[in-house]
Amino acid sequence: MRIDDLKFTKEHEWVSIDGDILTVGISDYAQKELGDVVYVELPPLGDTFAKGDTCSSIESVKAVSDIYTPVSGEIVDVNSNLEDNPELINQSPYEDGWVFKIKIEDEGELDDMMDADLYDEYLQGILEE
Amino acid sequence: MKTLPELIFNLSKEGKVGYSYSAGEFSDDLIAIDSEKIREDTADFPQLSEVEIVRHFTNLSHLNHSVDSGFYPLGSCTMKYNPKINEKIAGFEEFSTHPYSPHHLVQGNLEIIETLEEWLIKLTGMAAFTLAPAAGAHGEFVGMQVIRKYLSSKGDHRKIVLIPDSAHGTNPASAHFAGYGIKEIPSNEEGIIDGGTLKEHLNEDVAALIMTNPNTLGIFEKNIGEIADLLHKNGSLLYMDGANMNAFLGIVKPGDLGVDVIHLNLHKTFSTPHGGGGPGAGPVGVSEPLKEFLPVPIVVKDGGQYKVRYFDEKGIGRVKNFYGNFLVLVRALVYLMALGKENVRKVAEDAVLNANYIRQGLRNDLDLPYQSKILHEVVFSDKNLNVKTLDIAKRLLDFGMHPFTVYFPLIVHGAMMIEPTETESKETLDAFIAVMKRILEEAAETPEVLENAPHYTPVSRLDEVFAARQLHVKWEKGGNN
């Protein structure tokens, strides 16, 4: 997976689009900020969420952070490897550390996501704050 | 330097005893247990003499850090000194009554409950209190249930609770357990919620906003009056998390600010034991319209007699066995009565003064993410430092001080949340500031000293990641411990 093919949200999630299925994880910046991940609460398979809902959480030694659903839809797959190996989020945020897959209901909801370059600019803005 | 004692199992020597029974004390005919249920081997307890056992546990107890042994500025926890008179009076045998005692035999106990309710009503400006909840988060849950019951009694079944991004983590958890969905609302650049932001999130599905005031940045939510108005016009309620009531005591009455429900933490503001020191209490106060939805039992004064009401048609029912943690209530009332109503205000004044003294003492050494004036606690960030907040916290242990709260609130990068409370003298605050300055010098010159800290504690830096991922807390004989 090439990072250039991913899109990013302001909440530091990445998504990759394959037909009407969106794979979701957290960005490299997000995993570094969180520190060592010790537990991932996966969303329930088959549940539906509205865009912006909290659907799962990631616990690091520092804090517990929510993962927001980047689009509305049904959870069609979860990365159950994370249950025993939460460190995959730190080791491989863009590949083995993916969190869940969701079926897109409204493609329009993808419009306000950033590509890798824009996300980089967004991060620069945060760091300079 | 204190050392970690050997595990008691490893001190055991076959045949040592720390007790003696007189012959026949446990004769067979006294033991009315089925013979098949009596074990054949002896239990595998450690074998030591009495003095060895006493020393083992005494030495273990010396490893504790408590507010009786040193500075304890754990932000948002209000680790104030617990006056010993609280313990003395709570230990009176007159209070050791059976919870099923008939009311005419425990009039004094019931009077204590009613008197403490009256104190809390006066201090908060609320209409009524329940003292039953056993902790802060329990109080939140009870408060949310009261809101739910009140709204549904009017046929209103709202689904959402709004919570600021600086909130204690228990707020969304409690609202969720009470059946609500959560919407987070952002703080503005002053570190508080403003009416404009609230309006964007208000709709007919919003049951309540849970606001902590002063908030977890130690900042007064000055828009609370406007926020209460906006909520009420929308048919929503204002819940105030009273964890930081220490800043308001005797000065601000939340009831006057439009608060509908509040919980207090007796183990914070009212000096009852905290953390591992004993059970807590999280009384919930409500405004007049919500009064009849409070849980039972309710102590009522009827002429010269105290009675207890166990059933309320509209109320949410029972939330705790008997009367809550009664002896915690005794301690809180002793604290208030020993202070006297004319001195309660001084608690808040000194708590605010102490926090501002630390803010002023360290503001040139550490980044202050919010410039707003603060009340009872101050939050710095680890911005511009070449070590992390955790390293500074660990190094503080080497100086015999309990670290501040770390990495909370979540909206501050590398948060250091410091709450000295009114307990501490200027000398202690100066000592803390001096230690912090020294640690920050070390951070600049010899950061490795911090990265490997603590150095003078019974155990050095623990591998928290390994401990969290490979949880293993049970000793097993012959096992890999």
Q: What features would you describe in this structure?
A:
Chain A is α+β, with helices and mostly antiparallel strands. Helix content of chain A is 22%, strand content 36%. With 481 residues, chain B is of the alpha/beta class. Chain B has three domains: 49 residues, no CATH class; 256 residues, Aspartate Aminotransferase, domain 2, CATH 3.40.640.10; 123 residues, Aspartate Aminotransferase, domain 1 (Alpha-Beta Complex). Chain B is built from 14 helices and twelve strands. A seven-stranded mixed beta sheet of chain B has the order 1-7-6-5-4-2-3, with helices on both faces. A three-stranded antiparallel beta sheet of chain B has the order 10-12-11, with helices on one face. Chain B has a two-stranded antiparallel ribbon with strand order 8-9. In chain B, strand 8 and strand 9 form a beta hairpin. In chain B, helix 3 crosses helix 9 and helix 4 packs across helix 9. The radius of gyration of chain B is 26 Å and the shape is globular.
- Greatest chain-chain interface? A-B, 11 and 11 residues
What value does the Rg of chain A take, in angstroms? 14 Å
CATH topology of chain A: OB fold (Dihydrolipoamide Acetyltransferase, E2P)
Number of self-contained structural domains of chain B: 3
Helix content of chain B: 25-40%
Strand content of chain A: 35-45%
Protein structure class of chain B:
alpha/beta
CATH architecture of the largest domain in chain B: 3-Layer(aba) Sandwich
How large is the count of helical segments of chain B?
14
CATH class of the largest domain in chain B: Alpha Beta
Total individual domains of chain A = 1
Q: What's the number of helices of chain A?
A: 4
What is the strand arrangement across the widest sheet of chain B? 1-7-6-5-4-2-3
**Which structural class fits the helix and strand makeup of chain A?**
alpha+beta
The named CATH superfamily of the largest domain in chain B: Type I PLP-dependent aspartate aminotransferase-like (Major domain)
Mean pLDDT of chain B: 94
Unreliable runs of chain B, pLDDT <50, ≥5 residues? Answer: none
